[in-house]
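Let us work through a complete example step by step.
Step 1: write down the sequence.
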Amino acid sequence: MTCALVWFRQDLRLADNPAWFEACRSCQQVIPLFIDDPSPQTPSQLGAASRVWLAQSLASLAKQLQAKSSRLVLRQGLALTVLQDLIKETGASHVFWNRCYDPVSLERDKQIKARLKEQVQVQSFNAALLREPWQVLKSDGQPYKVYTPFWKALLKTGITQALLPEPAIIPSPKQWPHSQVLAELKLLPTLPWDQGMMAHWQVGETAAYAKLQAFLATTVQQYQTARDRPAVVGTSRLSPHLHFGELGPRQIVLLAEQYLAEYPEASSGIQTFLQEIAWREFAGYLLYHFPQTLHEPLDQRFNQFQWATQYQVQLQRWQQGQTGIPIVDAGMRELWQTGWMHNRVRMIVASLLTKNLLIPWQEGEAWFRDTLVDADLANNVLGWQWVAGCGADAAPYFRIFNPILQGEKFDPAGEYVRRWLPELAGRAVKEIHHPRVLGDGWNYPLPITDLSLSRRLALERYAQMRA
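Step 2: predict the structure and record it as tokens.
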């Protein structure tokens, strides 16, 4: 009798899940499994905010499975050891999983597959990307480093694909193996700071699909312009659902294309939205082909860049939203309270850190990885290198966001700043984005740096690097 272990990772859904579908289709017994591997995996280890989301997502998945007379088996330990133990306990003949594409997971999975193939049949699938990273290459066989030609090549492969249905029948084993309880994984913090953060979210596959439908019904037609306005609901906020695989990119593309067929007037919004999904695809693609970018700049010239060295006080002020620059502080406090930050504001806060304060981009990437519920490793690395000027499709090194002008342009009435900085709620519109001057009576810190002087210093150091 065939028995399959389905190892869930960043694919916490039952619909359009290739590993799950194939196991239920081809095996007589199916055991859903999640492994919390505590071994130090450096960048691929989840940060504190993401572990909170994971706890709720696992609870949601377990509830879905229970409603279908199945169970989610939870284990903590080294992935290979846990899998080998369960193969012995259950007599499993097959192991299925969906691939992760970061270099740490790829190397681990390669070793696990080689070892397990001595005992059972092992199959892995693609559930996270529209296309495998090795399927979209230039004519000379090399990977793309610029988004636009990558996007055009991706379109040629066909981004709209048929979806796998949720299995109608889940074949259960005759005897279930032991499962740890969710609390034993210790995903939640000792102090309950997570409760306020998660009050802003609904977690799980059902919530993710409902959010996508609501976005298409109410927001996507204005998406092209509204997505840059942090004070309004102008984005999909699907990023954490994508990160944990509660929703897959194929599902998003197909539903968006179906909506476009019914409402052609939404064309500009839909196309812009699909290009943002492709940016996520590009991030995973780049990390696969250039794994060194986890720690090093893609543009090797930046190995010579003169970053600041004594910056702990400035870094802490930035982390705590106490820079004295309203749009930046609003973004950092939104992050702290909700585990998320608007994308336009992410670019602004990253520019201040790397270009005005000259703090290495790796510091910002590490902070985001720990505090974002959508801390996707590939997206995070791509975004920080893009803003710092050292990555693929990077903003030119001389493009330094002025956070005052950015605030005035994208939060003109100051609604976003007032929402997250109550100490500035009484400021007039014309003053809301301007750092205070000494003695003006506001309970708000002085600016962390002189924006003009720090911009000039950054340009000088970029020039030295190029020379």
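Step 3: interpret the result. The first helix runs from residue 18 to 26.
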